[in-house]
């Protein structure tokens, strides 16, 4: 009986300590983890900001690949001219006054954002149907880093600011 208990405890420890991919939002200045949540390949996320010059919405679309890279897959930009990429992979169309880029494949290790009361950035966790108001996590002008890190599975239960996500039904862009 004791051997069975020991084996179950060891199995539980192995299960909880096994490293698994987490999407992490980190304060670039302090290194503090502001949010973490488990992800799998194909996990979709997007960012939504207000362009600081044109004051128009910009939404970028991403997906986590099997190697833990964040892959840019598209963008919607509600303006023409300055601020748009001059060389774009994929297809570009204008629909309803919005420039839509689709079919991009740009692999990134991390995304960096300077948080501002002007751009009001949101990180939309499309797969989870939730979003994060990044300005609620750091002061105006601070930078955050979004990346995928392998962390122990127990991190899902202990750590990573709980309560920072908002259900997408509360008016956030859906992120496609």
Would you mind describing this structure in some detail?
The protein is 9% helix and 45% strand. It has one helix and twelve strands. It has one helix spanning 2-17; strands at residues 19-27, 33-38, 44-50, 57-64, 70-77, 91-95, 98-108, 110-114, 122-125, 130-133, 143-152, 165-167. The strands form two sheets. It has an eight-stranded antiparallel sheet with strand order 6-7-5-4-3-9-10-12, with no helix packed on it. Strands 2-1-11-8 form a four-stranded antiparallel sheet, with no helix packed on it.
Name the features.
176 residues, mainly beta, eight-stranded antiparallel sheet, four-stranded antiparallel sheet, 9% helix, 45% strand
Give the assembly state of these chains.
single chain
Largest β-sheet summary: 8 strands, antiparallel
Strand content: over 45%
Strand order of the largest sheet: 6-7-5-4-3-9-10-12
Total number of helical segments?
Answer: 1
| Shape annotation | elongated
Quick overview:
This protein is mainly β.
SSE inventory with pairings:
Elements: H1 2-17, E1 19-27, E2 33-38, E3 44-50, E4 57-64, E5 70-77, E6 91-95, E7 98-108, E8 110-114, E9 122-125, E10 130-133, E11 143-152, E12 165-167
Antiparallel strand pairs: 1-2, 1-11, 3-4, 3-9, 4-5, 5-7, 6-7, 8-11, 9-10, 10-12
């Amino acid at each position: 009986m004791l051997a069975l208990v020991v084996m179950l405890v060891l199995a539980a420890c192995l299960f909880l300590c096994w490293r698994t991919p987490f999407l992490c939002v980190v304060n670039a200045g302090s290194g503090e983890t502001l949010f973490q949540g488990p992800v799998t390949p194909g996990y979709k996320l997007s960012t939504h900001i207000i362009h600081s010059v044109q004051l128009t919405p910009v939404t970028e679309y991403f997906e986590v690949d099997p190697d833990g890279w964040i892959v840019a897959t598209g963008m919607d930009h509600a303006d023409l001219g300055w601020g748009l990429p001059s060389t774009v992979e994929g297809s570009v169309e204008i629909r309803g006054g919005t420039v839509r880029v689709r079919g991009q494949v740009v692999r990134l290790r991390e995304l960096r954002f300077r948080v501002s009361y002007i751009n009001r950035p949101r990180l939309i966790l499309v797969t989870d149907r939730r979003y994060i108001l990044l300005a609620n996590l750091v002061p105006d002008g601070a930078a955050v880093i979004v990346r995928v890190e392998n962390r122990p599975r127990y991190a899902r239960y202990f750590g990573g600011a709980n309560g920072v996500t908002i259900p997408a039904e509360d008016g956030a862009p859906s992120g496609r």
